[in-house]
Fold this sequence. Notes:
mainly alpha; 3 helices; flat
Amino acid sequence: MSGKKETYVYGSLKERFILEWKIYALAFAGLAISDQLKTFVSQGLKILIVGIFVMTGTFLGSCLWDQMLLNLAGVI
């Protein structure tokens, strides 16, 4: 035994489970739109722009909410 500490890709089992659930969710979403792919492609740029705005708004809303709660809790 060399006494070296082993290193792993994931810091904990919890991190691994979180990552796996994200992969499963993305796979499920891909399967959900696969039968409607022609409709999805025909919408083209419109759906891309709306998607970007929705994701950006969700992210910024989450950031503001977290900032507010952390300030109220006195953490930051």
